[in-house]
Write a structure and sequence with these properties.
Order of helices and strands: HHHHHHHHHHHHHHH
Oligomer: single chain
Number of strands: 0
Shape: globular
Largest sheet: none
CATH class: Mainly Alpha
Radius of gyration: 19 Å
CATH topology: Farnesyl Diphosphate Synthase
Structural class: mainly alpha
Number of domains: 1
Strand content: under 5%
Length: 304
């Protein structure tokens, strides 16, 4: 698809789908799946709230991707030598102003999808919604963006982990037990893993553009070790919850994500052995699949 866009750029729908970066949307879907699965087990499932939470999460993720596409081009972070997937603004397939307007439009849709959730959940959901969109914009906005300051990892962990899982559960149950927030650390850690692959791949470009990511600050080896810690740590989160170390009941089948250990080890070894930045691109999809599989296995196991 990328080659097609590079050659012609005539299919506008495909351009916008590519800019939305579908392979990253698992980071939005997984925590909503976990939060909803835990709500089902607790007998507090609220279908409309679950669907709207999913829609809002996906729209915010697409908005983040559009904004990154725009902001990285405007700030000079994306160049012709970029090792990562094609960015449509940098490639000239979408005008910068058009991408900026698309970002505003998508975030606007996210706000609309969240109105009922705010009505149902009250001010906590309003705070979460405003903070999520605000942090998404701050992610790559200007000299003091989260990415430039090296705080992107914290943002990803919080908002794609405990906040997303906890918020999804809360709008259905109108309560928030601690085990739900702990469960959110699993998707949060794996989402950091996706970001680390991106940052290890782009370390040279980020350093040249003045981005102070953790990988730029502490080096490639740090990024690889942190990646392994995140993917293995997410599996341990499932084990902690399965054996009732948080909460009052054991859900032994919730340890099912431990089946992903061979994939986690293989991905870490692959990241360590790969020195060509472009060859890290498939690892983004592989880590995203681990994230989705973690969410599916944990959700099924929690309900058995």
């Amino acid at each position: 698809m990328e080659e097609h866009l590079t050659r012609s750029g005539t299919d506008r729908l495909r351009v916008w789908i590519w800019a939305a970066r579908p392979k990253t949307l698992g980071a939005a879907v997984a925590p909503v799946l976990v939060g909803t699965g835990m709500a089902v087990e607790a007998g507090v499932w609220h279908p409309l709230s679950a669907v709207l939470a999913l829609l809002g999460a996906v729209l915010i993720q697409v908005g983040v991707n559009y904004h990154n596409d725009y902001a990285d081009y405007v700030q000079g972070a994306d160049t012709e030598d970029r090792a990562g997937p094609l960015r449509v603004t940098q490639a000239g397939l979408v005008a910068p102003e058009t991408m900026r307007r698309a970002t505003i439009f998508v975030f606007g849709l996210a706000v609309v999808s969240g109105l009922y959730l705010i009505y149902r959940g009250g001010w906590p959901i309003l705070v979460v919604g405003v903070a999520s969109i605000g942090a998404a914009i701050w992610y790559t906005a200007g000299r003091y963006s989260l990415a430039a300051l090296g705080l992107a990892d914290l943002f990803v962990f919080v908002f794609f982990g405990p906040v997303a899982v906890g918020g999804t559960y809360y709008v259905q149950a109108l309560s928030l037990p601690p085990e739900v927030l702990v469960a959110g650390t699993g998707p949060g850690l794996l989402s950091i893993g996706i970001l680390l692959v991106n940052n290890v791949r782009d370390v040279a470009e980020d350093r040249a553009a003045g981005k102070r990511t953790l990988v730029v600050r502490f080096g490639r080896r740090f990024g690889i070790v942190a990646y392994g810690a995140c993917v293995i740590g997410a599996l341990l989160v499932a084990k902690v919850l399965a054996f009732g170390l948080v909460g009052t009941e054991m859900h032994l089948w919730a340890a099912a994500p431990l089946l992903l250990l061979p994939l986690a080890v293989r991905s870490t070894r692959r990241m360590s052995a790969t020195t060509d930045p472009e060859r890290l691109n498939p690892l983004l999809g592989a880590t995203g699949r681990i994230l989705l599989l973690w969410a599916i296995l944990f959700t099924i196991g929690w309900n058995l």
